[in-house]
Design brief:
flat; mainly alpha
């Protein structure tokens, strides 16, 4: 399962990179890093939730979903805020 998830994540990052290159959107290296960390947090939260549910531990599933899901949301929010504030100040 982890191997397939890794392939899907790599493919999504590659597609996003190609899309941003074609649309000529400039993103700093650390914004890419924040988005990659957020993707890892989301994938880890979802897979942990699935595996904890399979082991009949619903409280652990929800706790880790909130913990790592919220961390992923904060990483994406930080990257988006940085991008939009940088582009707003350039105009």
């Amino acid at each position: 399962m982890w191997f397939i998830i890794g392939i899907v994540c790599a493919a999504l990052i590659f597609v996003a990179y190609i899309f941003l290159k074609k649309t000529n959107i400039k993103i700093a290296w650390w914004e890419w890093l924040l988005v990659a960390v957020a993707i890892l947090f989301f994938i880890f939260a979802i897979t942990w939730m699935i595996e904890a549910r399979m082991e009949n531990e619903p409280k652990a599933a929800v706790t880790f979903l909130w913990t790592f899901g919220l961390a992923g949301i904060l990483c994406v929010a930080g990257a988006c805020a940085s991008y939009f504030l940088r582009n707003k100040s350039a105009e």
